[in-house]
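Q: Sequence in, structure out?
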Amino acid sequence: MTPLPPFRTLPLAAVLALFACTSGVTWGQSTYSPYSRFGLGKLQSGAGIAQLGMGQMGAAWTDRSHLNTMNPAAAAFLSRTTFSSGLEVRSERIMEGDSTTQGELGGLTQVAFALKRAGGKTAFTFGVQPRSQAGYNVSQVLENSVTDQYQIRYFGSGGLSEAYAGLARRWEGKTWRTFTDAEGAISDSVRIITSGTAIGGRFEQVFGGLNRSRTVDIANPIFIDTRVQTDEVHRSAGFTLGMVREQLITAQFDKDRKLVSSSLLRIGAIARLGRNHNTNRSTRWSSWQALSTGPIEVDSVHSTEETFTLDLPMELSIGAEWELNSKSGARWRAGVEWRQSRWSSVSNASLDPGVSWQDDIGFSAGASFTPRSMDDARNGFERMTYNVGYRQQSGYMLIDQGAIEAQSWSLGWSLPMQGSRSGSSINAAFTWTNTTAGDASPLLERGIGALFGFTLHPFFKNQWLVPRRYD
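A: Exactly. Output:
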């Protein structure tokens, strides 16, 4: 009988079909932040749920079972083909003095794939995830000598998505570890992996639209109200490069030459290269009259069409992570990360008066703990990985009150699926975020988010893309 081809084509076809269906996914509104009114909206880090629990670190964060969706090089450290996705539910509270507004929302976080042969050194990644979100409804009441009291209201919705495809490759360094007998003579030797270096890159296409409107409601009925409606279509394409270096620091063996404990140091970097970002803006001015049945459009004054090309800056992230694997099977990990992007070099022509781009600087720190390995754990609590993290960001946009600043704390859990030999897991994270525009800002935004998702490894007998022959 003629043997079948060495690759199972059905699982791969199913993966590609799923990606085609989800590539045009609508993420849904995921913010009520009044600060999403500026620039390109509220930017997203691109971190997966497992990374969110560790302060959204991505430069040096690698894992054999979870996909790093920020650093394109990290996929080379995966043990096999991986799929991950998740859902976020948020509650955001906006406070200004004694006034408080609160709302709940949610949406899909991302859809990410890494195709990798078990034991291989090369990984192909592709997916789609949100790049920014806009969602706000804010107002202010003003007075002047002509119209007396009037109200200005701002509405906004939409966001930008990012589709990507990348490639990562890993190289390993090896050495021989020798063992001596009681007399000092070499009795045995074992070859061990002492280092791993991965580089990767990916092509990214950003697309989407932002819808914004501004209305002026005048209390005096003899005046006509006005509304300015702005619709923007955004497009940009570029590359992100990444590097991760993993170095074995210490290794201890038992009397049977079996590795029982080790420590590793990882360093990594991400460079999201600068690119041209094109914006097509359509603006329409119209007059409205407030009636007992509601506002109706009286006249369309005029409309304009504008095109802006923004030279977006390079975004650079550098990080380090330390990992300790103990004799008892416990694993500790801790890391830090620094980020910078020089947004101040971007032209302010597309922004409202009084708003400008500002250099963005960020810092993250995180730690994780796994009580026991899969083989030694006696229950789910010992198999689970516990994460804690902190993230700080300052800049990107400068408004009248100051630069936008955000602080976020996070807790995360990752539970391997019982009975899964491939390392598939259920992931969860909770985040607490404060956003302001400096001490002088009257607005304080506080958000609580709950994220739930999963990481899946080879099903179909745990053998995706593994060569086999059949009789």
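The longest helix spans residues 9-22.
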